[in-house]
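Troubleshooting log. The previous structure file for this entry was overwritten by mistake, so regenerating from the original sequence record. Sequence copied from the archived sheet and checked twice against the printout by T.R.
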Amino acid sequence: MKLLGKRVVVIVTGSKMRSDALLLEDMRQNDAVSADHVRTLEAYLEETGGVVREEVNAGRATKVQRYADVVLSSGWDGLLLEQHALFRPPIDVSEFEYHLPEDDPPIVVHAPTRRELKGTKYVLAAVDALRDEGVDFEFMLLEDRPAAEVREILTAASIVIDQVVYPCHGLLAVEAMASGNAVMGSAIPGAYGLRDDLPVMTSTPATLTENLQELIENQALRRDLQQRGRRYAEQQHDYRRQCEYILNEIGVEQPRT
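Regenerated output below.
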């Protein structure tokens, strides 16, 4: 491709080039990361061994940097890379119906792809604790559901709990924001390439129960996150904006409109 004058662009996402060892080392030294963030990831890796293949991923990173002209990655997935531009997962925001439910009790959703990776056991423990205390809400655990059905449920829901193991967020969080949900999870605004204005209620297993109760009972807080979330999805994750950003990183001159 290079002989033909083509530029090589690589987008790195997921665990195929992640280093849990480097991430954990960085988390231990990062003032923005809580001790519970560190303990949670340590426990996950000790219990499961994780899904990352450190040596294989290091080899991939070497090859990518050798041949790629531009590499885009998130801050947490790109620690093996010497240099990369930030990448935010794009969505078509218009495909998600924005709805702010008025009815109580609120619907709380958690939709893990892998329970261990997303910290589902901590979510279920928080849900059970609040139910025992008599807190009024509806909880839905979504697994192996068609994408269209998940989108319908996100539109009806008020709160989505993203993953609570890694200090980042997944695509579900963005889709939840676009649908009008208040999002909770272990993502840390301002850390690992995330923006300072990321509208996520940062929660770890130690704070999940308390934070969930606050979001359920405090409609004003919930509404603030819901409204900011939709704007954030439009401004930071809409596929048209991401395409413009990527073309700019590649150095492609874009037509003026």
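The first strand starts at residue 9 and ends at 12. Archived copy saved in two places this time.
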